[in-house]
Amino acid sequence: MYIEWSYFAYLAISLGVTIWVARTLHKNGRIFLVDAFHGNTDLADSVNHLLVVGFYLINIGYVTLALRTNAKLSNLRESIELLSDKVGLVLLILGLMHFFNLFLFSRMRKRGQAAFEPPPFPPDAVLNMPGPK
Amino acid sequence: MKRLYVLYDPNCGLCTRIKFWLVRQPAYVAIHPIPAGSPQAARLFPALPNSRKSEELVVISDNGGVYFGDNAWIMCLYALREYRATAKRLSSPMLRPLARQAFTFVSRYRHSISRQLGMMPEAQMRTMLKDVIAPRCVS
What pTM was estimated for this model as a whole? Predict the structure, then answer.
């Protein structure tokens, strides 16, 4: 009986944390993306949504793949230990994915800002430019 | 800044190759290459100071800023979408001297580098293509 309860607890905790992290990303990442796309909220929302979908797919995929175990559980202690092993790994992967997403957000924002960046140094000389326009 | 005029050396194979590469890149600032010393360059920029070595790479922005040598090269990178971050990095105090040395080296030996790599200068390309007789289209 221990193994089934461990599976249920594992799925509940892992999916719960996945949903929580995804919603946090979705809510707080939006402002980065709006800034990156120069206030184009439609595009920002669309990219945000697509990122969250990818995040869900990868994490739920990993959670379901990592469910299986060959351990024989004979008491509560063993089942808690197994659960903590599995959930710990899921949390680490979620953390990595979360930082990877933050990295993507900040890179998109930097890219967006680059368009307005002034030249890195002043010119060596200045010409009057009546001619070419 | 909307445009960047790049006065490059048409007698240098490497410069010709880099020019073709530059204009193909996605850019924030449009790049207009003009052969240095050509009538077009003289017409567009009659006031360009000649005191600087005419051998040097010169870049002129549409608001009149003139950049020479390694600064000119960094400005070309600044114009490009994919390389603006690199331009910023190269102009930081730590990398600037290194970038300057590398640019001066390549600029000084550009003719021998072009020969070694078999890159044909634009001027030579033009004279060669003049002798080619294109086959006529059969309608």
Answer: 0.64
